[in-house]
Amino acid sequence: MARYDFASDNVAGAMPEVIAAIVAANAGTASGYGTDHVSAMAADRIRALLDADAEVRFTASGTAANAFALTCLAQPHEAVLAHEHAHICTDETGAPGFFGQGVGLIGLPGASGKIALPGLELALNEPDVSYRQPAAALSLTNATEYGTVYSADDLAALIAPAKAKGYGVHLDGARLANAVAAGFDIRRVAQIGVDILVIGGTKAGSTPTEAVVFLNKDLARRLDARLKHAGQLVSKGRFLSAPWLGLLGEGADGGPWAARAAHANAMAQKLAGLMPFPLRHPVEANGLFVDMDDAALERLRERGWFVYRFLDGTARFMCSWATTPELVEELGEALKAVA
């Protein structure tokens, strides 16, 4: 039987704090469609985490959260700039275009998942023409698909020229917890010009839930009607918001959401120290991307360990909140044996 412990950070179950919060939210009755007291408390905790005012809603998947957010930033005849290997470009099956009734995506180059400023500036300077979807928004990802982490200053340098052109800005934070644990200052997100932030819960150790944070409240007009139209306004909304009470705790320091991400990052560093194969990208969050030929990867799979071949041809190893040092050491021995 294949072992998926390092295949992704969404293979682990939910952390105990999340389950406890869901059980607590299950007691009694509550109003529907996100108007309940649990959703209000969860939104307050997210605003405290960001130290910013915002409209907050919850969806069951990152794809839905990203695609819905982008429909608020670009019209059907327009497009969104993003890294060529961003999740919205490679792993969402055209969902932004489906939700946005034709919204396009323009992929940009950059090492290790980070958009290169010269490539962005080139795209921003493209003339508007009638036969091509003009860009209207910029989408960024932190931590990136290759496990690298932008600093707030890095993001600000990319956002500033996009804002100068009047573009909206979306930040995909499916692994934002890991970026925060690596030193990213989450309280600067609102200050550097992000309009809509998606904060990942699922990969951080929750049951399915993502928070969609409208930092630019001008974009939140008729927000619930838009969510309902998109099929994303669920009736028992407290079961999407309750996990955040467990994830964030009662303080404003990120609670288990950040602490468990720090553990996942530490496990990735431990695995990097045991890895006999070359690393393609810096290990800054909870993932390793390894140069491993097909024969070695097959030998590893024959030993029961499953990992994916990633977009750039590397073998991807992901650590989660539930990864233990013992698991890392066991995998390290298997890797040593197949090298």
UniProtKB/TrEMBL annotation:
Annotated EC: 4.1.2.5
Classification via Pfam families: Beta_elim_lyase (PF01212)
Cofactor(s) recorded in Swiss-Prot or TrEMBL: pyridoxal 5'-phosphate
Domain Aromatic amino acid beta-eliminating lyase/threonine aldolase, residue spans: 5-294
Enzyme class: lyase
SUPFAM superfamilies per record: PLP-dependent transferases
Lyase recorded as keyword: yes
Keyword field contains Lyase: yes
An annotated GO BP: amino acid metabolic process
Keywords: Lyase, Pyridoxal phosphate
GO molecular function, one term: threonine aldolase activity
Family: Belongs to the threonine aldolase family.
Subunit details: Homotetramer.
Protein name stated in the entry: Threonine aldolase
